[in-house]
């Protein structure tokens, strides 16, 4: 059994690694290759390119790197057609993967998608391309299969793998000990994203917000998880904002940081869902290149961008987007959570219910779904 996979960012690497673990249990001799990240490679995945090559955010940024990304995609498609895998799995990154999947499917190579393109949130016009490209979609959220069925697309709810990994009752004390944080002092997690473009637009306001918080509460601890590629930009921003030595920067360990914190300031994306599953209050912020924002915002269908608010269908946590991303505004919103334990308790109750709904043992369910697809 040979499976080819493509992920386009570090959060996709985590999802794909969990799926890969499930597939290896079903097919012990399985081999895998394509475009991945370090967690997939640790499971024996042969990565032809790093997922960081594809990591862009926003339409304008994608256009700026269009030639490089399309060249990688063309070479990948040609190689997969020359040496067909038993199955291709695109993990999120639908703008890249649907084109690959369509060409492979036209040549009889089964292609499925892990993570349903968010046609319920924006760009519903992608439905036709999805239907032409994939045999099946493994859905992370329970409402998605019925929505896909309305458009003649097969889907299976497999749960969200992060919900399987994150404990229902995270151990804050153990996480603080692991990160060498003072157990008696409140901790604010700074989660500005894992892509270079996110750091470019969010690291300064996040650190400036931390500076504002320190001015009001000098005892606060700040911790920021990242990966090696982003360290130079983060260190430069720490220096520029006067926060060098006041923010603990750790490599990886984002889950430990989320478990350790009392509240998080977090970029919109998968990290917001992870923070919700850790039952931590948060403030969501996002900012991108202005033209990308105008183009994306014009196709948005929902009043929220944060997954906790979308999945709970409620304005549970504050969101600040684009010009609203102001340091003092972010700081005030974070501190409000620290001053309202009753609101935090209510939020934790909602997030616990969400955790139970999403906890479905994704690797096993996805492997069973794939077995049925291949046998059909």
From TrEMBL:
Condensation of UDP-2,3-diacylglucosamine and 2,3-diacylglucosamine-1-phosphate to form lipid A disaccharide, a precursor of lipid A, a phosphorylated glycolipid that anchors the lipopolysaccharide to the outer membrane of the cell. It comes from Limnohabitans radicicola. Keywords: Glycosyltransferase, Lipid A biosynthesis, Lipid biosynthesis, Lipid metabolism, Transferase. The keyword Lipid metabolism applies. This is Lipid-A-disaccharide synthase. One of its GO terms (biological process) is lipid A biosynthetic process. GO terms for cellular component: membrane. Pathway: Bacterial outer membrane biogenesis; LPS lipid A biosynthesis. GO terms for molecular function: lipid-A-disaccharide synthase activity; phospholipid binding. It comes from the Bacteria. HAMAP family: LpxB. It catalyses: a lipid X + a UDP-2-N,3-O-bis[(3R)-3-hydroxyacyl]-alpha-D-glucosamine = a lipid A disaccharide + UDP + H(+). Belongs to the LpxB family. Its EC number is 2.4.1.182. SUPFAM superfamilies: UDP-Glycosyltransferase/glycogen phosphorylase (SSF53756).
